[in-house]
């Protein structure tokens, strides 16, 4: 792994574990065992590192929510794929969601990129739901696709913040984020086509079980 | 109006218009045309004023979401009441929602009060949905009442934050908040009992129209 990539990986780890505002470039360099000068050779400042992490975030969103085509939409595998991808983005970039508005407001360039990515995601999610409708997996009234997509994006984007407000000592564990995934499924549940062959209950049970886990078996 | 009440009213106005973090006790005193000393006679500091505003917030939540009883639940009036109450709390205390986690994290006493009020609200909302079920207005599966209540609280609590992330120059207008109210109704829509006599479409049209308003006719 090249030094540049190691810096990004370590920064992401530290941001997620300690909160982005508590981590400086010096902390990152110390954690890697390199000199601050070496870090500055690769990145001008912390914001530069965040931009690089943001590219990973955008890339994940772009790849994971491209709509499946045709009958693939009726397979449970595609639902596990989408719902796991929601979990992944919430977990892997939880520092970002924990402090979304602060991070965006102090970095207009990042905010612009964020808006572009969200716009692209919105288009993808709407296409995805329309394809699910076409395949008779979902039966969402046309005029509800847009507002429903918005609510789903909102729930995913602010689930971490919401959890932080709900406790004096919030802990953003994997279980807590799986509860968010289960809520996304809950919101879609009324729209599942009555004749669809998917085992919706199986999906629900799966994510509820992960949300109820007292410990985090997959915690890094 | 007593000076103490005028301080609270003016503080709320300034917090909402300029953001709580941009307003000091000196600004509030100047806006009222009183001396800082006079303000300090009534309140120890800004946090003291926020606590007083929080009492109004709690009071509103407590009074507005007490479940209606019996057949009152089948009347459109009760829906206008609840949905207008959601708008009111988002609009009247928008400074609070704009910065919820910051305000709570720097004031543990307020955070404890917030958690107590949210707990009370949760109990009320669940009772309210169960009563709607009993009156055959809604048909929410029992096991979904709890997670659905949570999602509804979340959408209301983070709608302002979500909107702030969605634009480089966000403006938290009444229309934007009515869009949030319309989303709450959208989330409940699939659960309306097929035989209920409510004109759900009328409700939806009403709040969508308010959400689409280019200007704010009711803006203070």
Automatic annotation (TrEMBL), chains A, B:
GO terms of molecular function: DNA binding
Keywords for the protein's UniProt record, in alphabetical order: DNA-binding
DNA-binding region of this protein: 24-43
InterPro entries according to UniProt: Homeodomain-like_sf, HTH-type_Tx_Regulator, HTH_TetR, TetR
Record SUPFAM superfamilies: Homeodomain-like
Keyword Transferase: no
Any one Pfam family match given in the protein's UniProt record, by short name: TetR
Domain (HTH tetR-type): residue spans on this chain: 1-61
Protein name per UniProt: TetR family transcriptional regulator
Organism lineage: Bacteria, Pseudomonadati, Pseudomonadota, Gammaproteobacteria, Aeromonadales
